[in-house]
């Protein structure tokens, strides 16, 4: 095979383009980018770049380096390149790695890491060999460059390194080599050695674990290294070992703990941060709690000291920290991208051990800036910053890590932790130094969740202290105090007594409302977020104070800059969810609607700020109900318009994939706002729906086929809401909708499709009820629906929420078409009862159970094998409706009378609690 050589014309063209890419004008840059993108279609493009990097010393280093960076960014192209091109690129990159210029060597090093990752070491063993041999080089620069590349490879893809090539495992040779180099005279080499070794801990690498004792000995030896980078990697390795192989550290735990405590106070922030991660990891592993408990009295105060703002933090925050900056416009960089998750997936609340189940909280950004996902299995990554005023704007740092560790320790050790920290906390909270006070308030907030029972006796002192601290002259103190008050909002809002309300709830509410209108943007943000948390916790108890609350929030509409406006929308939407129908008072409508419609008029259809405004309005329309009617026309028309234009844009994108994919968020929130309008106004929307152009229902049918799951999820929610609120208007479109709906019911949906399937399963039950008993038009769909809903219900891997929605819809379809569904009862009876027995009593569950009872009346033998589950689900009801209760009574008495001896024998095998309740409630 002839080696690859460049064509002069092609080389010239690419070189010319790279030269032009150093121009500054935006138009030139755009053209260059387009040109470079076109080059990627040429199979030899990567070879030209490699040639410029490795074989054109007459070009200046900067140009060759740009070629190297382009090569790295297009590394994947080597997989589809002709063989002679791939071979040339591989050897060219290795030769550039030995170039005399450090810039070229660095670019080649990045290329090697990229290509080694794409090709995988097993397909490029000579590269791995080249790097490992260079570790023995006498030329220190070459040695260090090779180790640098190896470290990046070990960090980026350790599993790809842990392979067998031609019968040997390179790591069997490399790990001992790294261990010996951890004693190298150069700190850089020692640092690379410890780092490379540590990256193989989490993947359970046998080549490393054979030498685990030598590795731990090496860590202890390097623990007192003069170089902070080495110490940082030692701490990181100990954290990874604690997570993967804690049993190896436990015998040495007292030494390790003392070292980590010492390192958590290291002058070098990077070392301290890695050491602090150790306590976070330690606290998160429940099985290690007995080893951590005796260290609390040292760990707690150490973490507390790490939570004081450092000089670097304060420099970073200087704009926020000192001044009244409410009138300063935000830079675009201040605004984090927000994720709009669309409508919630339809689900049910469950009973938990006889106590009321709490609704799952919304997903939020954690106190310390990390993103927290719901523990629920829904596809809803809605990362709002409500509960935790995204408490610090810098990236992950020592302060945040210490606060996060304290949070987990509080959950793990609650009262025991508080005992240890009471003294040090008191000193900080009443310190003259504002930085100490601020860190104490942060700690108090971090411990709120875990230590609440132990802290509760102190709250009558602490809450007034916090309310008073809202007057502190330092904005950073006011903002952290808002956050901490938000963490204790559920205590402040408890309906204990009139006195509790007057001493804690009202002052907290008033204090936070003052902060909403603070002159410092950071305080506004924290105040508004904490107030949203208070609203959620207080719920309807806020109704008597609606007028002052709304008047304050409305002033904020005029005062806020861009970033905080987004949080304000959220606070208004949360308020509407909390107080519900109380918002229908004409006085409140008059206060709230003008600023919302004012914002609405200012924003264009493609303005991203329209998205949170539409979300906010969806909550407001549901709460205001009929009172929203005067504003409904323009809102409805605009949503219809947005849906139409979004669908057109998506159609263009499908025809021409070179276009950017349109943002689905506009489509999702417009569908959700229409759902809100329907819930609030029902048949009141008839004139708007009838006049819509293009017709909303034909647009909706297209949304049901949309490739993106969140769009389908919101579209099915809208189908269910239309069925409930204005079924006569929906009915003519049902044949088209049903065709899509049946296809959406999948027993094993991909994770991201779960919520769309959920909402489809729920909406079909709503539709069945509205058609009514034995309705001929619906009958054609009963068997196709049942034949998809039963497999969902029986599928062991389908998420719980999908089981529940499928069961409810089977029950409701059975209620309306018992003769068609009853023959299938033996297939699903047990799974049906298992899916719904834990669900909290509600109307949907009631209609589903009435359906099940109707099916049992139609086909009593169908329940014979599942009687235990049926009885268990009956006695789990707290208050069935009179109609349902009579059905239970009739069925149970019927079973008993049909075969008394058989019934008695069967019931005697039931658990005692079921026997007792059946006898007490139904006399059977």
UniProtKB/TrEMBL annotation:
<dbReference type="InterPro" id="IPR026003">
    <property type="entry name" value="Cohesin_HEAT"/>
</dbReference>
<dbReference type="GO" id="GO:0005737">
    <property type="term" value="C:cytoplasm"/>
</dbReference>
<dbReference type="Pfam" id="PF12765">
    <property type="entry name" value="Cohesin_HEAT"/>
</dbReference>
<feature type="region of interest" description="Disordered">
    <location>
        <begin position="325"/>
        <end position="362"/>
    </location>
</feature>
<keyword id="KW-0963">Cytoplasm</keyword>
<comment type="similarity">
    <text>Belongs to the importin beta family. Importin beta-2 subfamily.</text>
</comment>
<dbReference type="InterPro" id="IPR016024">
    <property type="entry name" value="ARM-type_fold"/>
</dbReference>
<dbReference type="Pfam" id="PF25574">
    <property type="entry name" value="TPR_IMB1"/>
</dbReference>
<dbReference type="InterPro" id="IPR058584">
    <property type="entry name" value="IMB1_TNPO1-like_TPR"/>
</dbReference>
<dbReference type="InterPro" id="IPR021133">
    <property type="entry name" value="HEAT_type_2"/>
</dbReference>
<feature type="repeat" description="HEAT">
    <location>
        <begin position="462"/>
        <end position="500"/>
    </location>
</feature>
<keyword id="KW-0653">Protein transport</keyword>
<dbReference type="GO" id="GO:0006606">
    <property type="term" value="P:protein import into nucleus"/>
</dbReference>
<feature type="domain" description="Importin subunit beta-1/Transportin-1-like TPR repeats">
    <location>
        <begin position="509"/>
        <end position="724"/>
    </location>
</feature>
<dbReference type="InterPro" id="IPR040122">
    <property type="entry name" value="Importin_beta"/>
</dbReference>
<dbReference type="GO" id="GO:0031981">
    <property type="term" value="C:nuclear lumen"/>
</dbReference>
<keyword id="KW-0813">Transport</keyword>
<keyword id="KW-0677">Repeat</keyword>
<protein>
    <recommendedName>
        <fullName>Importin subunit beta-1/Transportin-1-like TPR repeats domain-containing protein</fullName>
    </recommendedName>
</protein>
<dbReference type="Pfam" id="PF13513">
    <property type="entry name" value="HEAT_EZ"/>
</dbReference>
<keyword id="KW-0539">Nucleus</keyword>
<dbReference type="InterPro" id="IPR011989">
    <property type="entry name" value="ARM-like"/>
</dbReference>
